[in-house]
Design brief:
heterodimer; A: 320 residues; mainly alpha; elongated; B: 180 residues; Arc Repressor Mutant, subunit A; 2 domains; 9 helices; globular
Chain lengths: 320, 180
């Protein structure tokens, strides 16, 4: 209680100092003896190890108070409006980017929160560990990413993205804001590798995609669609454009009959639909792939954690 | 700061790392367990952190003001539990058991410096730490302590003079600038 009680009068003021005139008012303090200077310097000496020993407690309270397990990367926040509200003309680019290049977003969203050890490292080091970690792990992001399962429901979206890239190869070379500026290396992405592996090789992707049907009910293909189809799909919060499908009848989608698209397209598969169809599907399928992957991996904290958390910190640190 | 306010744990870690050591040194004056009070301080701070607005000086002033309140609360709790009011006025931590003069101080470590500052009268000790360790301006210290700026200046002046006397008594000044 020393702070409040000692040397104070009834009004909370010190009886001695306040009652005296101010001998140093308006003038600089007289030079301190060297010993005092040394003492004052010692007061601001670098932290000792025991003075940094209880960060985990503070971090726990910080997490509880902030109410969010991890920061949302700026690139993620910026990419969402583009994919949700972007013009149809951009949909193709976004579709390719999200489908093939956005494995980082998928991986990050699927990763667990930065663990205490990671943040503790940033506390213990004099330099920002976040930056060094970004450099250390950002060199090989594709090798650490798991990517969507090209043999599962994500195949539809991946095929759409691949098809669009085949049609507009230059479009996917645009640097994606979340891909370290190496948008031209989309073939190195985990998503593409998974697709190629599922198809049995890059050359057979086309044939493989021709056999891929719309994932249909029960595999998480977008929250907005789920409302229309009523198939009990996961309630993923990322809403999509509801105009993508007019019928909303779930039975029309799972097997991929011609009635899949209301535009009257005669094609049975999304990869061969007219140009109008991919622009709808690519705006939804890759993103829904990302969200479904997110929900599928977030609870398990897969190896993508190490590759994606530094990426997130890198994004945020760049804004400082 | 902005990133720490939005959940960036690395940014929060840097804030914590910058301030917590100084906070612990300051709280040594309170006579309460500095680490416990510091932990309570951070618990209070993180709750309000998203709404904090101000520069680095304001941030530090806020942190130290919060720490001071928590120390006062802790002192009151302890006083109630112990039912010894006189103990509540006890500023100084346990003095160094050895005779400082006999230790032939060749250099002043941080703990020793804080201990010497703690030998000052309460207000002077607080003012010295807040001004020279936390780096707060006179006006902020005055607000934090509920004193006038003039009183803070006087306390600073007297505190430094007394520190010089304390150091002279302990023979530190005889070692000159090469001591460190």
């Amino acid at each position: 209680m020393g702070f409040a009680m000692r040397g104070r009068g009834p009004g909370g003021r010190s009886r001695d100092e306040d009652a005296h005139p101010e001998p140093v008012e308006g003038q600089a303090l007289e030079p301190h003896p060297a010993s005092v200077e040394r003492l004052l310097s010692a007061l601001t000496a670098p932290a000792a190890s025991d003075e940094l020993a209880h960060f985990d407690d503070a971090l726990r309270h910080y997490r509880a108070a902030l109410g969010r397990p991890r920061p949302v990367p700026v690139a993620w926040r910026l990419s969402m409006p583009a994919s949700l509200f972007g013009a149809r003309a951009r949909a193709t680019v976004v579709g390719v980017a999200v489908g093939l290049g956005a494995v980082a977003v998928v991986a990050y969203a699927g990763s667990g929160r930065p663990d205490v050890d990671h943040v503790l490292q940033s506390v213990a080091s004099s330099t920002t560990t976040a930056t060094s970690s970004t450099r250390a792990t950002g060199q090989e992001p594709a090798e650490d990413g798991v990517g969507p399962d090209a043999k599962g429901p994500a195949a539809f979206g991946l095929c759409n993205a691949w098809t669009q890239h085949q049609k507009h190869p230059a479009a996917s070379d645009e640097p994606e804001p979340d891909a370290d500026g190496d948008g031209g290396d989309w073939k190195k992405s985990a998503a593409f590798r998974n697709l190629a592996n599922a198809a049995g090789g890059e050359a057979r992707i086309g044939a493989y995609c021709a056999t891929v049907k719309h994932p249909g009910a029960g595999v998480g293909n977008g929250g907005a669609k789920a409302k229309r189809h009523g198939t009990g799909k996961p309630d993923v919060p990322k809403s999509q454009k509801p105009k993508a499908h007019a019928t909303g009848v779930p039975s029309t989608h799972p097997t991929g009959p011609p009635a899949r698209h209301p535009t009257g397209s005669t094609s049975t598969h999304p990869t061969s639909t007219p140009s109008a169809t991919p622009s709808r599907t690519t705006t939804t399928a890759p993103t829904s792939t990302a969200t479904s992957s997110t929900s599928g991996t977030s609870s398990t904290a897969p190896p993508t954690t190490s590759a994606t958390v530094p990426r997130a910190t890198s994004t945020t640190s760049s804004g400082d | 700061m902005a990133r720490a306010q939005t959940g960036d744990e690395a940014a929060f870690a840097r804030l914590w790392r910058d301030v917590n050591p100084l906070l612990l040194r300051y709280l040594t004056l309170s006579g309460e367990p500095a680490e416990d009070v510091a932990a309570e301080t951070w618990t209070s701070i993180v709750r309000v952190l998203p709404r904090f607005a101000g520069n680095e000086v304001a941030w530090r002033a806020w942190v130290f003001a919060t720490a001071r309140r928590r120390a006062i609360d802790a002192g009151r709790r302890r006083a109630r539990l112990a039912a010894v009011e006189s103990r509540a006025n006890e500023w100084r931590p346990d003095p160094c058991p050895g005779d400082a003069a006999d230790e032939a101080i060749e250099r002043i470590g941080t703990a020793e410096a804080v201990r010497l500052v703690a030998e000052l009268p309460a207000l002077q000790a607080e003012v010295v730490l807040l001004r020279f360790m936390a780096g707060l301006p006179v006006e902020d210290v005055a607000r934090l302590l509920g004193r006038s700026p003039g009183a803070v200046r006087v306390a600073t002046h007297r505190g430094l003079r007394r520190l010089a006397a304390l150091l002279a008594d302990q023979g530190v000044t005889h070692f000159g600038a090469s001591a460190l």
